[in-house]
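Example for tutorial group B:
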């Protein structure tokens, strides 16, 4: 087993959202290890939710200030940032 862990290292969890921090990922890892203890799991889960909400709110506020600054001078970049916040992707129609 030791040889396997040396050759194949454990894969670290990657952020699924742009606003997720390393601290949130570490708390999520700790939460998954605490699944056997319900009280500890719920406590860590609450911390994860609070950190996620705060981090997402800060990220959105930063993006909004960038958009406000780019409104007059860089409209193309402004629209890219708006799409990044709203999560809209271009949809393509297939000719039927």
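The residue assignment follows.
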């Amino acid at each position: 087993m030791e040889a396997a862990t040396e050759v194949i290292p454990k894969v670290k969890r990657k952020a699924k959202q742009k606003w997720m921090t390393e601290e949130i990922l570490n708390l999520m890892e700790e939460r998954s290890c605490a699944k056997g203890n319900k009280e500890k799991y719920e406590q860590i889960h609450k911390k994860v939710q609070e950190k996620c909400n705060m981090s997402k709110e800060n990220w959105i506020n930063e993006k909004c200030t960038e958009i406000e600054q780019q409104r007059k001078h860089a409209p193309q970049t402004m629209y890219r940032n708006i799409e990044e916040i709203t999560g809209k992707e271009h949809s393509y129609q297939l000719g039927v």
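The chain has a mean pLDDT of 86. Compare this with the pattern of hydrophobic and polar residues in the output above.
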